[in-house]
What does this fold into?
Amino acid sequence: MGLVNRENANYIYASMKPRILLDDNKFNLTILRLCHQLIENHRKFENSAIIGVQQVGVHLARRIHDIITAEIGSNVDLGLLDTTFHRDDFRRSDTILTPSETQLNFQIENKRIILVDDVLYTGRTIRAALDALIDYGRPLDVELLVLVDRRLFRNLPIQAKYVGKTIDSIESEQVKVEWKEKEGTDKIWILPANEN
Amino acid sequence: MSKLSQKHLLGIKYITKEDINLIFETATHFKEVLSRPIKKVPTLRDITIANLFFENSTRTRLSFELAEKRLSADVINFSASSSSLKKGETLIDTVNNILAMKVDMVVMRHASPGAPVFLSKHIDANIINAGDGTHEHPTQALLDGFSIYNVKGQLKGLRVAIIGDIMHSRVALSNIFCLKKMGAEVMVCGPSTLIPNHIESLGIKVEYNLRKALEWCDVANILRIQLERQDIQYFPSLREYAQVYGVNRKILDSIKKEIVIMHPGPINRGVEITSDVADSKQSIILEQVENGVAVRMAVLYLLAGRMEVASQ
It folds into this structure.
């Protein structure tokens, strides 16, 4: 068969056009599974809080918060964290980044924090989020939950504890997460380079 | 995200309404940073800023220095009293010597109107005007505008009266530019000797009666009598000025609505404003000072964001 077998050929073909990684049904099953994993580890969330990383991580954080709150029957602390002022690409890109809102209405000192973001790629956003987070105090521990882990292109030694889906996409591709709240549909797309 | 249209902040005259909105939006986020347990972010850690105060200042210099340090910039300070200016050095030479030490931004206060504009044509660093003579004081106008915006929700359609020594005030001119650009109505009020001729050509109202001005406005920005800039006597005595143009409890109580009271400081208590007004609930004088740091952080952040990182 030579070097290009059917699987490779499929992959090459598939990577030429946008493809769906998770559709509506699987998308919500995945989130539900992540919620149950969290409940397994954090039980009643008495000393735990969920913090969504701005801007895109907040949709996932809100969903997870709502599901867990309904499941355990008591309200879980939810925060939003902006990383703009801690990013390492300030003055290194053409645009000046617009900050988003940070909303932390509880003490993080000695709390168990679950950072939530949608796609883990280079790990640089999470690095900034960790720095931004400790400006508010010293958490007991910090865990990371992501919907998609693009594991091949990490720039920093950062790993997620809870992962919705791990993928081996190539660098030029883009992973796009769509949310009912924003785009009207729950989907994860892999877009080829020329669609970016 | 959009950028500022200018490389420098020389005056409100040179920036756009979009710039002002961008600064207000960014300042809101820095205000949140300032409410954190650790009020410092690492954003400007590779930037060096020189604060050149050729004219004395306490509050503006402290506010700028704090804003710079909260952004993790390196800061050097210079004040006229300890300078070589007295030895005959020119302004450009002084600044070029400081820039030779690899300074990225200059915050400058100078007694001569236009000094920052002049300097911007001769040096590379980004310049922020921290007050030039009787010309402009852009960050003060931005923090005043931001303070009004925080209390009232918007500037458009608001009536703002600027009361007192308009002639010698750079705060007045910058405020007029800022408020007009944001769509507010502006009135100046004071003794005729302290109101420049033809100031109504800026598109503002002029009123010589304090009560009428207060009845008209939603916000009153009360300015200090700048005795140090007055070479001749513009009114008979401070006592008489206080009686005719001093804002006191009695005159505010006689007005049906509650107006917001502002003052850029330093206050001459008992002259342009009495203590019971300055310390009352309707006064936002201390909020202005607090907002000053956030607004200056926003200006520094947005100007620094335009600079390229030096390549090796």
Observations:
- Residues 20-91+98-195 of chain A form a domain with the Rossmann fold fold (CATH 3.40.50.2020).
- The mean pLDDT of chain A is 88.
- Chain A has one domain: 20-91+98-195.
